[in-house]
Structure prediction request, 222 residues.
Amino acid sequence: MESKKLAAEKAVEFVKDGMIVGLGTGSTAYFAIQKIGQKVKEGLSIRAIATSNQSEELAKELGIPLLPFAEIDEIDVTIDGADEVDVNWNLIKGGGGALLREKIVAAATKQLIIIVDESKLVKELGKFPLPVEIIPFGYEMTIRKLQKLGAEPVLRKAGDEVYVTDNGNYIADCHLGSIAQPDELHRMLNLIPGIVDNGLFIDMAAVVIAGYVDGSVRQLEK
Prediction:
C-alpha cells in the first residue's frame, strides 16, 4: 500500500495551477486525490473531473472544485491506476468498476499519468481478467459471444446481486490467460452489440510511475 501512495504523490507533482485534472478511481487513485486535496488546501488552484461517483464524493469531501463535462473541451492531466501495464504501456483497467468513465476521461486528456505498484507491471497483458462493460438487455447473448471469442466471462457480483456500474450496466470479467494482440482484441470486442466498452487502454498512457516495495519510485521509460 505504501508503494502505491509514493507513486501517487509523485504523480501529483505534474499538477499545476490553472489545470483541469481528471481524478481516477480505485485504491491507487485514492492516494492521488488525497494529495491533490491537501495541495488545494495549501493554495493550489485547479478544477477537476471525477471518473466515478466514489471519486466525486471524495473530491467534494476534500474541497476539490469539480466541473461538469459540458464546460470543458479537454483535460490537462488525469491521474489514474491500472490493473496491469505491459512493456508497451498498454493497460488493463476496470477492476474498480469505472472503466467506461475512466476511458471517456482518458480520451479527453492531454497527459494520462498511470500510477501502479510494481506487481502491476507485466510483460504481456491477460493474467488479470479483462473487465468488459455490457448492457443489461440481452446480456446472456453478449456473454455467449464473448465465449465464442475464446474468453471465459464471469458476470461480476456485489455480494449475491449482479454488480451494476455508475452507468447502470453490468461487467463481465473475461479470463483470457494472455493477450498477445491487445489492439486487435479491443477492436473485436467493441464490434459486439451489447458491449459498451472494454478495459483495454491502448496507446493512452503518457507517463507511467511505479512504486516499489523497497520504497523507491520510478518514472518508467518505454
